[in-house]
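Quick log. Single chain, no ligands specified.
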Amino acid sequence: MTLRLTLRTTPIVLLLALSTGAVVRAQSTAPAKPVLKPAPHAIQVLRIESSEIKLPPAFQMAIYEHALDEIKKTGLFQEIYRDGDKRASGASHLVTLRTDVTGFKKGSAMARQVTTVAGKTSIKVHVEVVKADGSVLAQKDLEGKVRFFGENMRATFDLSKSIAKALRENFEKPAPAKS
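-> predicted structure:
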């Protein structure tokens, strides 16, 4: 009788133990959602700096222009100013986006088309969002790359998307104005 009872209850006990462990494990591994900062009213995007690495001017300008477009698409900032825009000095709650190139590897579009393991183009940057007093609100190392198909300049577009994504991960959209 006890052997028969044990054989019946063992699978049930084992199943309960496993399912309880799975629930506990699922709860403990869920990543905590980061607390987003309210997006400042305005952002000034500075020209791309290339202090350590010699980045061709065409790549610098492409990163800059694509970044402006992608930042505008996020809808995080009510005003977006270019480097040197005099109106930025009077903007309220202005932050500055600094981008410094830390790595560049110019690949080959032809090599990418011939083989899938050669010819990768990559651009690595360090991005900072800085308040007027110099304090850093957010910073991140990012990379833009072209691995398979496309021209080398496609890496600038990939990098700009990463910059916009990093801003969305750190700031929340302003609430719509109430009428």
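The chain has a mean pLDDT of 78.
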